Amino acid sequence: MQRRQTPAAREAGFTLTELMIVVGVVAILAVIAIPAYTRHVENAHRSEAEANLTALAMLLEQHNALYGLYCPEADCGADNAEHTYEYTEDDTGAVDSDTITAWLRFRPKQATDNAAVRYDYEIVARGGSEYTVRATPAAGRGAPQGKNGGVLTLNQDGAKSYDGEAGW
Fold first, then answer.
1. Regarding predicted confidence, which is higher, 25 or 7?
2. Gap between the Cα atoms of 127 and 81, Å rounded
3. Average of pLDDT values for 118-131?
4. pLDDT at 154
5. Is the pLDDT at 156 greater than 90, yes or no?
6. Residues 85, 97 contacting (CB under 8 angstroms)
7. What is the pTM of this model?
8. How does residue 111 score in pLDDT terms, banded at 50, 70 and 90?
9. Which end of the chain lies in a sparser environment, N or C, as judged by fewer CB atoms within 10 Å?
10. Helix (H, G, I), strand (E, B) or coil at 64
11. Does position 8 have pLDDT exceeding 60, yes or no?
């Protein structure tokens, strides 16, 4: 006597329709997940610059409280002209240019991967009256570029901007 096979016993794999449904679901998840992940990574990288700008602003305020100036006395004196100071690194993390750390004892916090910082930093100070600190993304290091270059700024009044628009 021959045994009769049930429909479940005859089906040994997935049908093409079932596979296409799975591929479609995975594609939809990827379309949603990849941009969300990218935004999350960009926000994390931008937080490096935000933390460093805040640290620079606090150091400048401390320097102003002690000496009455937002820049070294030898530079500022009585001229009240703008003076620019910068901190940049090369791709290996070696310092390229640094006119900040000598008088502010500032060393930017590095990215979590122990590579070079993702941003170049600049201070534009005018005596004891005003300053602007700026973080500009260093090319090729993963910092978000934004529509206007991804530049973050912070001034003596606490006004913050990202890409020329208010706020971080």
1. 25
2. 7
3. 91
4. 97
5. yes
6. no
7. 0.78
8. low
9. N
10. helix
11. no
Three-state secondary structure call for residue 43: helix
User: What is the 3-class SS of the chain, one letter each residue?
Assistant: CCCCCCHHHHCCCCCHHHHHHHHHHHHHHHHHHHHHHHHHHHHHHHHHHHHHHHHHHHHHHHHHHHHCCCCCHHHHCCCCCEEEEEEEECCCCCEEEECCHHHHCCCCCCCCCCCCCCEEEEEEEECCCEEEEEEEECCCCCCCCCCCCCCEEEECCCCEEECCEECC
**The two structure tokens encoding residue 29:** 């998840």
**Residue entry with tokens 């089906």:** 11
State the Cα–Cα distance between residues 136 and 134, nearest whole angstrom.
6
For residues 54 and 63, what is the distance between their CA atoms, to the nearest angstrom?
Answer: 14
And the tokens for 58? 């606090």
Which amino acid, one-letter code, is at 92? T
User: CA 129, CA 15: separation in Å to the nearest integer?
Assistant: 74
